[in-house]
Sequence to fold (257 residues):
Amino acid sequence: MTLPLNSADALLDTIVKIARDAGKVILAVYATDFSTRGKADASPVTEADERAEVVITNALAALTPDIPIVAEEAVSAGKIPQVGNRFWLVDPLDGTKEFINRNGEFTVNIALIEEGRPTLGVVLAPALQRLFAGRVGTGAYVEDAQGRRDIRCRAVPPEGLTVVASRSHGDAAALDQFLAGRKVAALANAGSSLKLCLVAAGEADLYPRLGRTMEWDIAAGHAVLAAAGGKVETLTGEALRYGKPGFDNPHFVASAA
Fold:
């Protein structure tokens, strides 16, 4: 059954369910002695990535059959659809290195892109039992052991910025140069797209990414952040756009608006 895209609450609830179904598949693999192999770009992939992507893409195709789906593992296999003003971006398991290292900081990511910007997103960290979701114009929320509550970006505290950086892809020298002259109270590491969500939830203030990412890596977190009042910009101050040739991102900074 297809769902009207203007039914914001119903659509977001449905995407949350799809993400949770994918999370169950991932955790089933996580509990086993799974194997890992390298893709053409030398990045790792597991059975969990592939099985979760099938769950998500099948569900999205049934839900919105006319909307193209750009999914990481399919793109790696050369299956790249033509995209227009509206398409889905899917990373079935962001943070595969975190998955392999079993630190729990991996996520399921599903985002809807409209007119080059993410307008709806769900980020699920199944091992941490934490889910972030949002739709631009209607707000964002987190669900965890304490229940469900709305989230918003915070004003930077007087003591300074809490900056989040990548655990697996850090460039310490570039980060130090970027932060020079800023008042930084704390520097924390986090895996996968959780960094964007921490800014959205008011648990951090700034996430500079000074390395390579793909659109599916960050679109869902970007949507949650935008719904919570934040923004993602290039280093030259332009809004980060989606549907770019090759789906590569430039360096960017995520922050409260």
Summary: The radius of gyration is 17 Å. The helical segments are 8-30, 47-63, 72-76, 96-101, 172-179, 194-200, 215-227.
